[in-house]
């Protein structure tokens, strides 16, 4: 058993109407269970509970055993001074506040029906899942309930992604164009090099980057050099040497710091090589000034596809790496790659911008992402195997959020779907 079952019982009114008493036989009436706290501190804030005829307002803390209070050192933590009720499964020791007053304790094991325990045990113990805990019941869930929850999960995922964006905004004095550039660099770097690209982009003076954007040759040399791709390679390729010389000039002009490491190629298909992606990004900024302002005005995927209709410079039409000639081909950004940029960069940025200026664009953003096709990965295949196909990017992003933040962490009772399954006929 885990504490989340106690949270579920408390917040879902499983004790409603029962004659409750503390371990010292004082009557308890729950007026308001309070608000679940997902961070550090007591489990429920702002509860209202009547104990022995006296109404108390404050916080509620929960443990499997009363002695966990001392095991977690709450008796010395001022955050727990305002706890008005200790809710436990088993009351094995008296609990006191720092001032020596005893905290009323409610022991749950004699109040919970066998049906609730059985369903909880079925969800977590008797059945060993291959994908998620509720996989044998998932297909029985009402589609209306699932779809509503998926929409909420997607907004939750946007909130999660907004943390990085707001952090970048604080560090750049609210320069949205610069933050867009940093986020694009991260996503052009893909999973293999994304964090490295993010770090190096954050260290680059964006105003200096913009000064080179009129000259694609300078722009490429700046990006290749700043990412450490113009050093430590024994290459006599003319274009490589020219870029290297140009970057030497730019690094002195802009006082640029060299990268201490180099990005990698492992696991990348040639079309996703960072050399190709850097050239495509350079051409994007060569073609578009004030890119964020342009993207802010777009409301349809087709308009975004048109803006990102970019390719590499001529050299990369017959190269994937410096000095190695390959079959000539145009290397444009694919629709699927642009979709990932929309999902991971453009929509999160617009979500954050709307929050900052105080407007609600939620419906517009939900409509935009619902027009994009779903991603393909093992998580979505797992849900498909349960009979839940994924029709668009909104659903795929929501299911990724569901799996990563709830299913894989066994937070089933914090999940609307898991709580619904446990709540049935109980």
From TrEMBL:
<dbReference type="InterPro" id="IPR021272">
    <property type="entry name" value="DUF2851"/>
</dbReference>
<dbReference type="Pfam" id="PF11013">
    <property type="entry name" value="DUF2851"/>
</dbReference>
<protein>
    <recommendedName>
        <fullName>DUF2851 family protein</fullName>
    </recommendedName>
</protein>
